[in-house]
Write a structure and sequence with these properties.
Elements (H helix, E strand, L loop, with lengths): L1 E6 L8 E6 L2 E8 L2 E6 L13 E3 L2 E3 L6 E3 L21 H15 L8 E2 L1 E4 L2 E5 L1
Antiparallel strand pairs: 1-10, 2-3, 3-4, 4-8, 5-6, 6-7, 9-10
Length: about 130
């Protein structure tokens, strides 16, 4: 059963919005004029994906920079280590980030669930 979750005018070209349908959190992505729907939460550590970036069909998580293909939901990469610049940081903070990075790298990045989308006039309909 398809449920209306948004209007086409709600999503700019190349943009994303978070919606909810039947208690499922989703992100709608507008890629080349076509709407895609994927799980809202990152397949790595549950970050809200609409706060990340969408470049073409690649959605990048705002927390650890895992990347996903919005057309298939496939996880294209695991986490990407963050670069804190060339400024030296206190040793204790450096050790913390090194340890946290090691732990984060051990968490598997799962594919996102995708959902069928249907456009009816100006309405975006999702099947959940």
């Amino acid at each position: 059963m398809f449920i209306e979750v948004a209007k086409l005018s709600d999503i700019a070209p190349g943009g994303m919005i978070a919606v909810e349908a039947n208690k499922k959190e989703l992100v709608l992505c507008n890629y080349e004029g076509k709407i895609y729907a994927v799980s809202r939460r990152c397949g790595h550590t549950n970050a809200p994906l609409e706060m990340g970036t969408l470049e073409g069909y690649i959605l990048t998580c705002p927390l650890h920079y895992s990347q996903f293909d919005i057309t298939t939901g496939e996880a294209l990469s695991g986490t990407v280590p963050r670069h804190f610049g060339d400024e030296p940081m206190p040793e204790s903070i450096g050790r913390f980030f090194q340890y946290a990075g090691m732990l984060i790298s051990k968490i598997k990045t799962y594919d996102l669930e995708t959902y069928p989308v249907k456009i009816d006039g100006n309405s975006i309909m999702i099947e959940v």
